[in-house]
Specification:
Four copies of one chain form a homotetramer.
Chain A (H helix, E strand, L loop, with lengths): L3 E2 L4 E6 L5 E7 L9 H11 L17 E4 L1 E2 L2 E2 L4 E6 L21 H7 L17 H16 L4 E9 L2 E2 L12 E3 L3 E3 L2 H16 L6 E8 L13 H9 L5 E6 L2 H4 L4 H4 L3 E4 L2 E4 L7 E2 L2 E2 L4 E7 L9 E5 L4 E5 L10 H22 L1
Chain lengths: 356, 356, 356, 356
Amino acid sequence: MSSAFGNKLKIQIFGQSHSKGLGVVMDGIPAGMKIDLEEVQRFLDRRAGGKNAYSTARKEADTPTVLSGLVGDTTCGAPLCAIFENANTKSGDYDKLKGNLRPSHADYAAWMKYNGYQDRSGGGQFSGRLTLPLCFSGAVCIQLLRQQGVEVSSHILSIGEIQDEAFDLVDIKQKTYLPDEFPVLNAAVGEEMVAYMTEIAKEGDSVGGIVECAFTGIPVGVGEPIYDNVESCIARVMFGVPAVKGIEFGMGFAGVKQRGSECNDAFYLEGDQIKTKTNNSGGIQGGITNGMPVVFRVALKPTPSIYKEQETVNFKEMTENKFHIEGRHDPCIVPRALPCVEAAAAVALYDLLLEK
Amino acid sequence: MSSAFGNKLKIQIFGQSHSKGLGVVMDGIPAGMKIDLEEVQRFLDRRAGGKNAYSTARKEADTPTVLSGLVGDTTCGAPLCAIFENANTKSGDYDKLKGNLRPSHADYAAWMKYNGYQDRSGGGQFSGRLTLPLCFSGAVCIQLLRQQGVEVSSHILSIGEIQDEAFDLVDIKQKTYLPDEFPVLNAAVGEEMVAYMTEIAKEGDSVGGIVECAFTGIPVGVGEPIYDNVESCIARVMFGVPAVKGIEFGMGFAGVKQRGSECNDAFYLEGDQIKTKTNNSGGIQGGITNGMPVVFRVALKPTPSIYKEQETVNFKEMTENKFHIEGRHDPCIVPRALPCVEAAAAVALYDLLLEK
Amino acid sequence: MSSAFGNKLKIQIFGQSHSKGLGVVMDGIPAGMKIDLEEVQRFLDRRAGGKNAYSTARKEADTPTVLSGLVGDTTCGAPLCAIFENANTKSGDYDKLKGNLRPSHADYAAWMKYNGYQDRSGGGQFSGRLTLPLCFSGAVCIQLLRQQGVEVSSHILSIGEIQDEAFDLVDIKQKTYLPDEFPVLNAAVGEEMVAYMTEIAKEGDSVGGIVECAFTGIPVGVGEPIYDNVESCIARVMFGVPAVKGIEFGMGFAGVKQRGSECNDAFYLEGDQIKTKTNNSGGIQGGITNGMPVVFRVALKPTPSIYKEQETVNFKEMTENKFHIEGRHDPCIVPRALPCVEAAAAVALYDLLLEK
Amino acid sequence: MSSAFGNKLKIQIFGQSHSKGLGVVMDGIPAGMKIDLEEVQRFLDRRAGGKNAYSTARKEADTPTVLSGLVGDTTCGAPLCAIFENANTKSGDYDKLKGNLRPSHADYAAWMKYNGYQDRSGGGQFSGRLTLPLCFSGAVCIQLLRQQGVEVSSHILSIGEIQDEAFDLVDIKQKTYLPDEFPVLNAAVGEEMVAYMTEIAKEGDSVGGIVECAFTGIPVGVGEPIYDNVESCIARVMFGVPAVKGIEFGMGFAGVKQRGSECNDAFYLEGDQIKTKTNNSGGIQGGITNGMPVVFRVALKPTPSIYKEQETVNFKEMTENKFHIEGRHDPCIVPRALPCVEAAAAVALYDLLLEK
């Protein structure tokens, strides 16, 4: 078991950083749905790096080949499989590490889990590269969700200490974009964030941040009790996105300081529709959607790959060691992680929507 | 789909607040394991209410009847089923609500999801009562984990604004207990919390809090990539615990403000064992355990059931309405939720341990 | 993993022959469905023994207690759990076997599988008693199928060498019943079978037979490709019925001797409906229903429990041994297995119907 | 849901007859296992057609490309994905059928299931071509099983009326091969079969047959009770092989005519090993392996594609019609289906072995 997810929609991801290819199988999409692959490509471009001072220079051939599941631009009921080639598949390059375990990477855990047989090259199956098929599946689900009136919005809520405005939980406003797909609500704050990340990059260090994501237009009653509730399913997929270390819905951690009388979302009538005046629940009550925007925040830790010298253990010689990681890295993964957050959540929500 | 969870260990929960009974089936426990039912009972007593000024007076017959899966005190390889009777099964009492949708409860979402056929009595399958079988399954898994050297510790990190000390992430210290199973690290802070909850109870209001939980002794290499990683599985089950609105691992949300050079956990050698000097990763890297304590924090919202008058919609007359909820409620669910947090996580971890 | 089945409808069976109780959880039945428990009881009575010369005398308290999932007679969307008490739970009685492995029973396989920890009393979880919850789940699904226009018919096609007429594959005729729920198409043949079984019983031996089962009214397009096709799902559950050793659909094994030109089912128009002139496919083409009756035959081996002396190995002394099994047994399980066959298939079909 | 299977080993098949490609993902193979891809290729060649008078001329590029899961020749714990190109992907050729539904093919059922959106080209996802990834997954599992001492043997038991000798159920003998991988126990009978199929081919008709398959060396105690017993799992996957209409284990349908005293498999001691004198159970008791050879027989219907004129309905004009199918077809699929039978069973058994 491992890289599979879903009930009605089964997602199976495969591949390693330097294997011949990687990809995803989506089994369970209803027949007769239109998929716009150019729009998918535009979504994938949002996660691609190498466009600016604060993301890695690796240029990737990130164009999917759809092997099955489509007839023209329409699903046929067969599993949809999309694959991506790995340009750089020379598996020698992990030797650069010369046996040094990269702190806060999966190196050590994977080595022990797979008794040394894991693919060490470029992080193997733990590489951020695996978010490419994840984003493909999400881009498809975002289209399928939109066809049912569900829209996703997200922005960078913080980078390090720098805070963007938060979403109005009852009224999600369209986000502002700086150049290079840098989504924030307050453009000025965005400029600050970019400047800060560029500074951090110069220092050879990294920093984390928070992504805030909202889905609007979800019908009431989506989600299953206990283990497949909406929060459970979104949280499950979200921790599959590298660097995610926390998630909260609605008021989340801030809500614990409130009184019930403040935090409860009072129902009212808008015409014959039942709505809530506030949305501290983040659109989810008892694990089920209540028709209000589903809003959550995801904490992304600082990229563990940094230039600065680090202490570690060399598993080949079993000695303590000092080393630094070569190659180019993202000083902050948040901008590239944002589409992954949208993608992961879209897959979980579409699966639950089919389940309904 | 809904109330089922697990790969190697399948958990199936069933029951409603006022159905004849409720319970859980645990399918996949290896044969030959000893289960101490008295110890299970002591665990269940920790979630029982009615013992003090800040928890509901409902007295429940919370003693499990094990129908199958055990021969004497030993598992036989057959699914283990435990059931609980519901003392109060007169399903009339929801009429008290007279059609008023309780704010921030599942009432409205469930009504829409099940087209009005949901069991409205006492919250039906969305009742906190369902944490009873959840705790049973967790109490069993905690014993099975202990037999493999894994121990769980948890404490109340905060109630409203009142903060207990946090765990030392690399060295989990045994918790202090006030009377009535009130686990905190700093007893003085605990007294404050109790006084505060009692005050809130008098006001007819409620408040939330945070539980911090740690598992020690987990072997390296537990967890599967992407969708079944340790964080994904713990998060998934945790949002099945009522009132949970957020979860974070290791440094979690605070970590996003750190630099990679601070946040990375440097490896070192302790004899021939590889360990990390810090544990900002919360014992999990790449979704897989690294042998350090697995530590996470769970945000619990204020109990939505309060005495204070609330605004809502009456779904029978489709009118806006003012009402207040009768009966006794917990002004703060955190103390009773804490064993549920341990239980839910124990189930997820034991399933992953079997998977390994 | 083990006693669980289903995609949209999850079935979890639990219990042993002499555990406190046994039962089943059905998770995924839509809310708002009416269940007639008296009709369920009449179905369960069909599998009960002790009514005649050819079935065991064990009188069982086979009345289900529904713990959850129903409000009155209507499903509420919560998992439906039904339990049965085991009257005889004194677990000493397996000592009668004094360590002798019953030939063609699960005794030896289970002993090895569970390292001796299996529940040996009365066959433990391998007891035919487990067909009681299986039949409960099937009886419920038969009602749910009927509400969608699907009807099940079945009859005893053979006992030993004695053959009943076979179904007309395109036109399933209502079956004839002898007293004691003995369903055959030709009553005279039925009398013969009863006489034969009574004879076999006198000899202390047993015999097998074949059940033929048909479902009519299934819509076109039910079933999923490859692993969840209709034949796969029915076959999977059918081998969960004790004593089943073979299954065939439509012409089955006889069809292999036909030419394609004979065996192919020609399409024709009945008004605007597409039908087939013959039904050698048994209503299933490419694993998917084509609207014709779904017909299959199940081979049931002779009951392994016989009075005649048998050779075996005693696992306590690890010696070869001669012994004979005490207590009363069915000389032929076919009549009691027939409702189990209907039940198992109904569960698989209803799950696929929900999947559609 | 559909083209996915397995608990510990997850198999996900994808592709259509004329899509860009097809393939399989195998998720759950332990790390560190050696896979010999040349041996896999030799296995795949056994199912390839076009080598003789009785199989279709279609020449296919049936060489897998392994995208992931291997480092050199060793599994690394990541999902193993293998893909195959489809040489002929011009999707026009189904127009040859001009809307005529091929009798006893999936055409009609699929058309209704997918509301006309199914891939009609070359049978789409219902094409026999999908057995190519199935065989790949099986060839890998056969190697993994062999590494644990499990061997598979199979032969053609019958073509039409022509019968080969049956396996000795307690002592499986190595099979004889005619040229072109035509496995029978009696070579003379094999010659007869070949002559007969060639004759049928001349007539433009087709015929069916039976494959007998045996696995030796399986440890005692493999299989799970009720729904995941060995017979259930093998049967489930077997009906995923096109043209399969029946399966039986051990004595199967013939066993129903036996007395219990004949059919029961008496235990005896061979040294300190418990064995059975006969193997009418086919190595499976209570659904669990007992250490004797696992033997089963599979009925394969005559290939539905024949040259002879057939009656059908044209779904475009909704008129009854006479037509005949062009192109070359197998007059008998049995020889090419045999490796598919081995492959499907190997996947099910290896999954259960990992489960153990």
